[in-house]
C-alpha cells in the first residue's frame, strides 16, 4: 500500500506539500455548496492522500461531526475525488485522536479507520442530540443528524412520501398538514421523519422541532399526570413548530394519551405548526384509537411507503457501502438485493455482514465473499430454483419485463436474455426441454435446445457473457 501524506495539517509543516487532490476537491465542493457549509464542515478536515491518489483519509474531530460529515457529504466528496482523480478513490473517514488540538488533529492510521460497527451504518439515537452543533437549538430535538434526505435513497417505493416530506420540510404549516406516513417495518418511515426535522433545522435553526416515538409520548403523559406537571407538558408540546411522532399505532387503548394528543394536535394545527405522524397502517386501519383522532389523522395527506423494489435495494446497498468508505460492485449488490427482499433494515444487516467479512478476511467485496458472509441467511431461505424465478431474475438483470420471457418478440435485447434464461433453466432445474419450452410461452423444444447450445458455446469465448452468467447463477443458487 502506498504511504499516506498529510495535507492541510499545520502540525505537519515539515511534510511534503499537500497533494492537489484534496485541495482540488475542496475547490470543487466550494463551487457546489454554500461557503458556510464548506467552511464549517469540510475545510477543518485533515486529509491524507495516498501517493497514488487511490485513497483519501479524512480525520474528523469527534464522533458527532464524523456522523454528520458521513451522512451529509461523504457521497459528494467521494464523487468529486473520483472525478478529479479520474480513477476510483477510496474515501475513509476516521476520528482524529482525542489529544490532538482542534484544527491540528493528526490523522489516525488508515487501518484504524472507523471500524464497521453496527452504529457506523445506523448511528444509535443519542439521548438528545442536536441537529447541528453549529446551529444548536435551545431545546432537545431528539433528531438523529445522520437521517437526512441526502442519505435516503429514492425509488418508486418511497417517491411520493419523500416528495411530500420534502415539501413539508421546506414549507411547514402549509400544505399536507398533518402528514401521515405509513408502511411496514424497516421501510424508512423513521428515517423520513428525521429527514424532515433535520432539513427544517438546517434552514431555520431557531425552529422548535421535536421527534418523539409514540411510546415516549405515552410515558410523558403518564409522568406529567403523576407529577402534576401538565402545564409544563402543554407548554412543551403546544409551542412546537414541528412535531414528528413515530408509530402512532402505539396509542391504541391509551385513552388519556389520546386525549392529550388530541389537545396537542388541535393546538398545533391552530397555530399552523406542522404535525407528521408515522404508523404501520393507514389511519382507518388503526384499531382502538378514537374516531375523532383517526379522522384528524386522515385530514391532511396520507402516503404509503412500499417495500423497495430490486433497483432501489441495489441503490441502497451501493450508497450505504459508499458511506462506509467501501465500494460495492453492482453485481454483488444485485446478488445481495435479490436475496434480501423484506425491508431496508435487513438489507443493512446483510451489508454489514458482507463488509465486515471482507474486512476481517482482507478480501475484496465479491459475490463469493457475500455468499460466504450471508451463508446462514441464504441457507434459511431453503431455495428452490424454479423456471419462474430464473425468468424473473434474468429479466431484472437485463432490465426487461418478465412478460417478455413468454412473448413472441424478437429484438435482440429481448431474445438474448430469453435465451439466457432458457439456458439457465436447463442448467439449474430438472425440467425437460419441452417443459421449459412450454414455460417460455409455448415454444418448441428445438428452440430451447438451440438457445441452450448457443449460450453454452458463447460463454466459452465471451468473457463478459460468462461473467454475467456467473452472477446470475450465484444469485439464483444463493
Ligand atoms: N430509502 C432508504 N434509503 C436509505 N436508507 C433507508 C431507506 N429506507 C430505510 N432506510 C434505512 O433502513 C433502516 C430502517 O429504517 P426506519 O427505521 O426508518 O424504518 P421504519 O419504517 O421506521 O421501521 P419501523 O416501523 O420498524 O420503525 C434505517 O437505518 C434507515 O436509515
Automatic annotation (TrEMBL):
Q: Which residues form a coiled coil?
A: none
Species classification? Bacteria, Pseudomonadati, Pseudomonadota, Betaproteobacteria, Burkholderiales
Q: Which Gene Ontology BP terms does the record give?
A: DNA replication initiation; regulation of DNA replication
Q: Name one Pfam family in it.
A: Bac_DnaA
Q: Where is this region: Domain III, AAA+ region?
A: 142-358
Under PANTHER family, the record lists: CHROMOSOMAL REPLICATION INITIATOR PROTEIN DNAA
Which SMART domains does UniProt cross-reference here?
AAA, Bac_DnaA_C
Record family assignment: Belongs to the DnaA family.
Question: Which gene name does the record give?
Answer: dnaA
Instruction: Tell me the domain comment.
Output: Domain I is involved in oligomerization and binding regulators, domain II is flexibile and of varying length in different bacteria, domain III forms the AAA+ region, while domain IV binds dsDNA.
- Report the protein name in the record: Chromosomal replication initiator protein DnaA
Region Domain IV, binds dsDNA: list its residue ranges.
359-478
Residues crossing the lipid bilayer are none
Amino acid at each position: 500500500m502506498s504511504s499516506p501524506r498529510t495535507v492541510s495539517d499545520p502540525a505537519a509543516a515539515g511534510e511534503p506539500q499537500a497533494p492537489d487532490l484534496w485541495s482540488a476537491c475542496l475547490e470543487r465542493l466550494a463551487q457546489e455548496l454554500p461557503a458556510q457549509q464548506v467552511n464549517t464542515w469540510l475545510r477543518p478536515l485533515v486529509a491524507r492522500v495516498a501517493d497514488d491518489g487511490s485513497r483519501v483519509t479524512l480525520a474528523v474531530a469527534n464522533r458527532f461531526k464524523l456522523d454528520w460529515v458521513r451522512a451529509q457529504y461523504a457521497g459528494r466528496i467521494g464523487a468529486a475525488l473520483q472525478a478529479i482523480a479520474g480513477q476510483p478513490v477510496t474515501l475513509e473517514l476516521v476520528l482524529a485522536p482525542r489529544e490532538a488540538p482542534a484544527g491540528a488533529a493528526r490523522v489516525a492510521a488508515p487501518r484504524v479507520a472507523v471500524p464497521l460497527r453496527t452504529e457506523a451504518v445506523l448511528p444509535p439515537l443519542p439521548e438528545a442530540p442536536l441537529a447541528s452543533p453549529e446551529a444548536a437549538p435551545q431545546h432537545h430535538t431528539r433528531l438523529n443528524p445522520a437521517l437526512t434526505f441526502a442519505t435516503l435513497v429514492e425509488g418508486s417505493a418511497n417517491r411520493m412520501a419523500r416528495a411530500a416530506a420534502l415539501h413539508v420540510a421546506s414549507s411547514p404549516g402549509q400544505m399536507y398538514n398533518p402528514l401521515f406516513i405509513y408502511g411496514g417495518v424497516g421501510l424508512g418511515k423513521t428515517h423520513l421523519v428525521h429527514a424532515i426535522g433535520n432539513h427544517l433545522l438546517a434552514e431555520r435553526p431557531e425552529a422548535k422541532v421535536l421527534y418523539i416515538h409514540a411510546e415516549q409520548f405515552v410515558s410523558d403523559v403518564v409522568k406529567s399526570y403523576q407529577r402534576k406537571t401538565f402545564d409544563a407538558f402543554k407548554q412543551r408540546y403546544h409551542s412546537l413548530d414541528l412535531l414528528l411522532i413515530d408509530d402512532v399505532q402505539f396509542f391504541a387503548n391509551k385513552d388519556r394519551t389520546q386525549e392529550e394528543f388530541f389537545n396537542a394536535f388541535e393546538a398545533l394545527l391552530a397555530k399552523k405548526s406542522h404535525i407528521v405522524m408515522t404508523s404501520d397502517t393507514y389511519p382507518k386501519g388503526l384499531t382502538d384509537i378514537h374516531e375523532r383522532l383517526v379522522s384528524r389523522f386522515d385530514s391532511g395527506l396520507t402516503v404509503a411507503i412500499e417495500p423497495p423494489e430490486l433497483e432501489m435495494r441495489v441503490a441502497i446497498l451501493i450508497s450505504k457501502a459508499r458511506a462506509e468508505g467501501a465500494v460495492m460492485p453492482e453485481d454483488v449488490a444485485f446478488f445481495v438485493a435479490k436475496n434480501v427482499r423484506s425491508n431496508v433494515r435487513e438489507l443493512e444487516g446483510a451489508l454489514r455482514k458482507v463488509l465486515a467479512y471482507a474486512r476481517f478476511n482482507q478480501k475484496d467485496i465479491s459475490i463469493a465473499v457475500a455468499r460466504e458472509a450471508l451463508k446462514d441467511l441464504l441457507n434459511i431461505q431453503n431455495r428452490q430454483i424454479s423456471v419462474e424465478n430464473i425468468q424473473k431474475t434474468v429479466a431484472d438483470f437485463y432490465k426487461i419485463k418478465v412478460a417478455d420471457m413468454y412473448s413472441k418478440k424478437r429484438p435482440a435485447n429481448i431474445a438474448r436474455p430469453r435465451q439466457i434464461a432458457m439456458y439457465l433453466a436447463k442448467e439449474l432445474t430438472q425440467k425437460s426441454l419441452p417443459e421449459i419450452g412450454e414455460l417460455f410461452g409455448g415454444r418448441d423444444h428445438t428452440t430451447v435446445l438451440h438457445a441452450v447450445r448457443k449460450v453454452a458455446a458463447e460463454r466459452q469465448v465471451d468473457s463478459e457473457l460468462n461473467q454475467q452468467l456467473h452472477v446470475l447463477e450465484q444469485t439464483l443458487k444463493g
